[in-house]
Amino acid sequence: MPLDLSPDRKSLQARARELARGPVAARAAEVDRTEQYPWDNVNLLKEAGLLGMTIPTPYGGQGRAWLDAVLVIEALSAACSVTGRIAVETNMGAISAVMAYGSEDQKRMAADMVLAGDKPAICITEPEAGSDASGMTTRADRRGNRFVVNGKKHWITGGGVSRLHLIFAKVYDEQGNEEGVGGFLAIRDETPGLSIVKREPTMGLRGIPEAEIAFEDMELPPSALVMPPRGLNKGFADLMNAYNSQRVGAATVALGIADGAYRLALDWSERREQFGRPINEFQGLQWKLADMSIRLAAARALVYGAARSGDGGFPDMLLAAQAKVFTSENAIAIVNDALQVFGARGYSRNLPLERMARDVRMFTIGGGTAEVLRNVVAGALLGKKLPQTRDGWAKAADERP
Ligand SMILES: Cc1cc2nc3c(=O)[nH]c(=O)nc-3n(C[C@H](O)[C@H](O)[C@H](O)COP(=O)(O)OP(=O)(O)OC[C@H]3O[C@@H](n4cnc5c(N)ncnc54)[C@H](O)[C@@H]3O)c2cc1C
């Protein structure tokens, strides 16, 4: 790997790899089969100091950089993508938003919960507001000295296992005027009005629930507001800024899965013989392996570069979007090719390739689809907001002959 990692980073990576190749790999198939959240692995991560690494030291974390988290997530995801995702969401996403925008009390509470093993849930998507998150209808109404939240979210990772929830809602003043999108903290089983409605039956990543969550007259004190609306678009901009870390994390899980699949294929291509020689002596497979390694190297460079761009803040929006689009799409191709190298065995549930193929498929969707992220890239390149907004589409439809 042509990377100048410091001795500290190499040792962190080695620690994560040891865990990944040992106990995490040993349980990955069972996690998939039973669809049970791997609490054992959470404890392993906790003991190894791999939860909440990016949390600043005054709050009990290690104040590590995004790249440190990325190295750990990549290593874990090569063995078990669910465990890799747990490492994402205990180091990036909701926790990083709270650590950036929260009050002292909020930061302490969130840090304590994550360091104790909670994977916070981030609640943005709604049945009618997916890619267009700004169309969310979950609302938080100011009523005297509290907010009353009503609405529904779906595809919330960790719904039913996560305790801490970072919930985005449109905030309205006492007169019913919209103030913009705000982010609130609530705790499952402690905040009345928050309920888990149902779990989605997913194609892959089955060890971590995706759930629909409802808020019915959920009352929150002002101290629950982490990201104030700050005018119509500012709270939403804060959310998107923080989300760049989650995007880098999602890209890293895809990278890790692809790397794991590639290594399995490389090894098998040496051991499997047909026509009296190892199958990697056939040029058709050599080129496949070469292409896989080229795609991996390019994806890794993009992901690491995006992570580094966030030193001292959040990763750059353009770099995070480029990394996620390229890595998620190429990871699908790499895993598919790796499965092909195994022939029929790759199609069997006795080997991890079919699980990897199901798991990796998610990453062009969750955390911003590849199409929407291409819009982000184009918008950044062209230096303008593109008309892929609700108003823009409605106008275009009206103007159609
Ligand atoms: C496993 C998983 C975990 C998830 N976890 C979470 C979570 O923890 N929290 C959370 O809030 N959400 C989560 N999501 C939801 C995810 O963020 C959304 O699925 C995603 O934003 C897309 O929304 P949608 O599914 O409604 O698709 P839609 O928005 O309905 O899109 C459908 C299709 O249209 C395309 N499309 C839409 N708009 C445009 C456009 N302007 N230009 C071009 N193409 C467009 C999309 O790319 C897609 O191909 C998760 C999703 C998955 C699959």
Low-confidence stretches: 390-401
Q: Mean pLDDT, as a whole number?
A: 94
Share of β-strand residues? 15-25%
Shape annotation: globular
Give the helices and strands as they follow along the chain: HHHHHHEEEEEEEEHEEHHHHH
Bound molecules: flavin-adenine dinucleotide
Description of the structure:
The protein has 3 domains: 7-115, Acyl-CoA dehydrogenase/oxidase, N-terminal domain (Butyryl-Coa Dehydrogenase, subunit A, domain 1); 121-232, Butyryl-CoA Dehydrogenase, subunit A, domain 2, CATH 2.40.110; 240-382, Butyryl-CoA Dehydrogenase, subunit A, domain 3. The chain contains 12 helices and 10 strands. The strands form 2 sheets. Strands 1, 2, 3, 4, 5, 6, 7 and 8 form an 8-stranded mixed beta sheet that branches. It has a two-stranded antiparallel ribbon with strand order 9-10. The N and C termini lie far apart (56 Å). A hairpin with a 2-residue loop joins β9 (273-274) and β10. It has helices spanning 7-34, 39-47, 66-79, 81-89, 94-101, 104-115, 234-271, 283-309, 317-341, 353-360, 370-382, 390-399; strands at 121-123, 139-143, 146-157, 164-172, 178-187, 194-199, 210-220, 225-227, 273-274, 277-278. It has 401 residues and is an alpha+beta fold. Mean pLDDT is 94; it is low at 390-401. Bound molecules: flavin-adenine dinucleotide (FAD). Flavin-adenine dinucleotide is lined by residues 122-125, 130-131, 155-157, 205, 210, 362, 365-369, 371-372, 375, 388. Flavin-adenine dinucleotide binds next to β1, β3 and α11.
